[in-house]
Amino acid sequence: MAEPALKQTRPTTNVLELTVSELSGAIKRALEDGFGHVRLRGEISGYRGPHSSGHAYFALKDDKSKIDAVIWKGSFQKLRFKPEEGMEVIAQGRVTTYPGSSKYQIMIDHLEPAGVGALMAILEERKRKFAAEGLFAEERKRKLPFWPAVVGIVTSPTGAVIRDMLAGFNERFPAHVLVWPVRVQGEGSAAEVAAAIRGFNAMTPGGRLPRPDVLIVARGGGSLEDLWGFNEEIVVRAAAESTIPLISAVGHETDWTLIDLVADARAPTPTKAAEWAVPKYAELVEGNDELGLRLRNAVRRALESAAAGLKAAARGLPRPADLVALPRQRFDAVDRRLGRGLLANTKAHGMRHARVAARLQPRLLEVRLARASDRLEALGRRGADGLARLTASRRGRLERMSGRLTPELVRGRMGRVAERVGVLGDRAQRALENRLAAHRRRLDGTAGMLRSLSYQSVLNRGYALVRDGAGNAVRSTAQVKPGAVLAIEVADGRFSAQALDGGPKADNSVPAAVPATAPRKGREPGGSQGSLF
């Protein structure tokens, strides 16, 4: 038996009934109106770097409280200092709520460290980090070239620094100078300095612009905040990766930055860097004259010493007649002995020839020829007998094999081979048919999937594709201007239409291109139909 339905009760109070969204919206408006713009000091907590979307989420806390914070992508890219875990900062922004989780948070527009002490703490932390990686090690620093043909300078083109450096070059030694203009202070200065260092290193020798032999990164003096761009990690790593020797001339002698520690040399001022980069012309001329004088004196002393040694050696050498006297006597003695030796040798060879001729008689040759002839005849008879036996053996073997080769045997074997060929042909035919059927089924499935994914199937369900005059698909009302001619494609053809109005609309009505019976499962929160393509 069904239970009786409960009677509907009416509210007994005059309190206005709100939905959760209405209450959350009212709280959000009240909080934003009461705290439209705030300046907040606290310590960064829970920072893990920017999200994949480019936004940054973390919290600001002190010894008693904590508030969630968010920096949107556009504001994060404009920050002069990037957030770091544990950094004490001063944030400026608006307090708002996140209705999805009933939490309030601050949306930060501007962020800066809380005083010079915070900057020094960050600087010391980065210094320890880079020192642990070995970027400040003395053994990795290179010696500056003595006479660079091209000098590359990374600095601001409008400041007094570049004028002082060019004056220093003209005073000491005119050189080919390439200036890469950058901002040396403010937002984006660190990225420009790092790009300039890497750009000079990317130049190839012999290119349109000559590759520098030495680099100078220069800037005038300033406060810690003004010089902070040269403490950024991107600048330090670009200087460490430079294959060209680099001189750091940032600030005055009392100022120091992290690029000073990683550079191959640190000049106290930009003018001093120009003096270090090239030698002084007057000193080169003076040194060249001094070396030339020393060379001439050394050559003169060497020639005088060689002449004295030659004279002393000439006095110690014997006369030419004395040098050839002994060899001449030896030659005369050998000449006298040679005539007697030739006569004795001729007599000895004559006597040996006579003894050998007495033993050479025709009878001995005839006996040796007869023996050789008998041996040749015996070998001929043995060869003929062996050939006859081998021929008889091969003939018998051939007769036995020919007796076994009959036409019936060949026909039987050919029949078995033909039968096997037929069986294999049938199997190949069936395999080919099966393979063709499998490919046909796969092709049919792919064609069906193509038809289901094609936009024509969407048009067959009652939708329309709208294009502008250039043939581009219209995806938003912002693309349509009043009076624009549109091409509309439906399932069975195309026709043209003219827009009466255009631009985005505030209402949530369903577009005319969407049928009233279109499915609502893929609808977006605003009630409009998403893109079909």
Structure in words:
It is a single chain. With 533 residues, this protein is of the alpha/beta class. Helices cover 48% and strands 15% of the residues. The protein is built from 13 helices and 13 strands. The strands form 3 sheets. Strands 1-2-3-5-4 form a 5-stranded mixed β-barrel. Strands 7-6-8-9-10 form a 5-stranded parallel sheet, with helices on both faces. Strand 9, helix 7 and strand 10 (265-266) form a beta-alpha-beta unit. Helix 4 (160-172) runs parallel beside helix 8 (270-277) and helix 5 (189-202) packs parallel to helix 6 (233-241). It is flat, with a radius of gyration of 53 Å. The protein starts with 19 loop residues before the first helix and ends in a 35-residue tail after the last strand. Residues 1-7 and 508-533 have low confidence and may be disordered.
What secondary-structure arrangement, pairings included, does this model have?
Elements: H1 20-34, E1 38-45, E2 56-61, E3 66-71, H2 73-77, E4 88-98, E5 103-113, H3 116-132, E6 150-155, H4 160-172, E7 176-181, H5 189-202, E8 214-219, H6 233-241, E9 246-250, H7 258-262, E10 265-266, H8 270-277, H9 281-316, H10 320-359, H11 362-404, H12 407-453, H13 455-460, E11 465-467, E12 485-490, E13 493-498
Parallel strand pairs: 3-5, 6-7, 6-8, 8-9, 9-10
Antiparallel strand pairs: 1-2, 1-4, 2-3, 4-5, 11-12, 12-13
Helix pairs in contact: 4-8, 5-6
